[in-house]
Task: structure prediction
Amino acid sequence: MKTTFKVLAFAVIIGCTLVGCKSPSGTHTHTWSPWEPCAPTPATLVSEGDQERACSGCGETVTRFAALPIDTGAKWIEAEGLITGNTGNYTLNIEGSVGKAGSATATFGATPSGSLTITLKGSGKLYLTSQESLLRMGANQTLIIDGPVLEGLATGQNNATQNNNRAALYIETGGNFTMNGGTISANTSSSNGGGVYVSDGGKFTMNGGTISGNSTSGTSSGGGVYMVGSTSEFTMSGGTITGNTAGNSGGGVSANGTFTMEGGTISGNSAPSNFGGGVYVSNSGPGTFIMNGGIISGNNGATGGGVYISGTFYLVTGTIYGSNEADPALRNTNNSGTTAALYKGTTATAQRGTFTGPGDSWESKANLEGSISNTIKVVDGELQS
Result:
């Protein structure tokens, strides 16, 4: 039995009690009340805890451990206010469809000392209602995405009347972003970075989830992910970057820093007017691409359908599909020449090999040709037939 006492007009629940269905047949369509916090660890909008809800028809009660749901823009604003200016760990549970204004500065304010970690969970959607970034993380701040959809700004989407001017998710110098699940999608940007922008000194780790349907326009690069500066880092061990488009170069990823691919898939992206449908590695920074796992397939670029190298490319293990692949859906394609799989600029470095020794020194086994049309498959530095 559930014990309660009343203070003013509020019922305070002592303990979460699970009560079975009391309807005569034992089954019926439940009409649930909103989730409410309960002891011993009451949930809030920004922290996980115990909650329960009851059916008004039969009295059945169910419980769960999670943060209270953020399902309106007003609740997002309330949660943001509880976090801004503080340090520590917070969990936000996105449910339903939640709109928020863009952030031109760090979304949760500055963190000059200590650290701030925000984890987004839930099955809902957080979307932009105005220009700038949906979420922007500053120095000493970490964002972890486990579940929800993050949706950008594009004309005609969610009643928007304009495209965006910034990446959907922006990592400032000293900021960190870990993507374990969820989706970053549907952002049309007039500047570099459609889905994610990683500043010099920022770090992005992708373990799962999807970055899809984002784009940059004009001379802007990095439809899915854009990295700027030699100390920007992006490590991809899982997940998918797909269906993104760059107005300039790097339909999937444009790397000026260090991009390490250990798994996952980069597929179906395009840079139809310039370089690197899947991945573009710039000589500004300069950019370095280390591929030690994963698949690059089905991308299109004017030159370098799969990968375009102006900086440095170290290939340990991985597959970059080319024009000779039996399955057309896997083929990377280019608009002219013989660069479907890979193009290497005249001053660039592109090699296959391994990292050895305690200092992970690079040991080259062979240079990669400047223009490669056919599929490239490498395991531990050795070319596979």
Summary: DSSP finds one helix and 40 strands in the chain. The chain has three domains: 3-66, 69-188, 191-385. Confidence is low (pLDDT under 50) at residues 1-14.
